[in-house]
Fold this protein.
Amino acid sequence: MGILAGLLSAYLYGVEKKPLPPVFQPAPNPYVKGVYANGIIESHQSTGANINIYSEVSGRIVQILVAEGDNVRQGIPLIMMDDSVQRGITEQQKSQAEAALALLEELRAQPRKEVLEVAIAQVELAKANLKTSQDQLDKQKMSYDLDPKSVSKDTLDNAINAVKAAKANLDIAQKQYELTKAGAWIYDIRNQENQYNALTKAFMASSALLDKYIVKAPVDGVILSINGAVGSYISSQGTYNTYTQGFDPILVMGRSETFLNVRCYIDEILIPRLPQPTQMQAQMFIRGTNINIPLEYMRVQPYVTPKIELSNQRTERVDVRVLPIIFKFKRPANVNLYPGMLVDVYIGAK
């Protein structure tokens, strides 16, 4: 029985099992001299990559008006920030500008009718006082001429001085009337105009800054990612990511849903093997499937950079550099593709 069990075990373990077929075939090279590259799917842009949106001011998010995947139009508000302090400053500067304008209009409206009438009345009063003083002096002189002893020298001098004082008062009243009639001094008006313009510009600048507390869509497109929540603090550097311990854009937008781009990174040692741009063609293989999609050449970014684009980290011991090449393709209807996916790309010649 032991011998039979050993022979049976040897037979069973000696039978070769057929390997399971692969779930999907690895990406084959469809070209005779094809160049392999890692690629990352991006939104379709004529220049640049995805649209990273940052806030121009710092503050706390109080409301998020869109959701990921929404199609938005240019100028649509996306995120609202706490603007209570800036709004108070703007309203204060607006009130100051309005007060400066009111004072400027008051200066331009001079002379005021009621003030001018008072000045005229003061002139008439000064004339009446002069006439009274002159009549009194004439009577004193007439009496003195008839009998020098009837009027003392002191009384006559007082009457003469009273006439001189009345003339001086009349002259002051007339000059005051002319000054009132002339209105505000031109230099006072110009100074008030400059002050009003300065306050108006300060109010306009404050209003423009207040508008920055609403993050708006810079272009038509689709919301790809929102890296913040209500209550989060954001700044011009973006939002702090607790997982990567770095800063991310507040929002990421794409432009077109019909087309997508693929950014390929060609290792520097493979660059001489690339065909000319006019003869360049490529195919994209979606990882985890047997699907391949032809790509249309768009442009080359003629600047070789360190190989950190896909991971955002430098892990190589040597300075490995890559050349970015951008292709585009029409989004297939039966495959789910999103910006940020990594794909395999082979580049060859037509």
Q: What stands out?
A: Residues 111-183 form a domain with the Helix Hairpins fold (CATH 1.10.287).
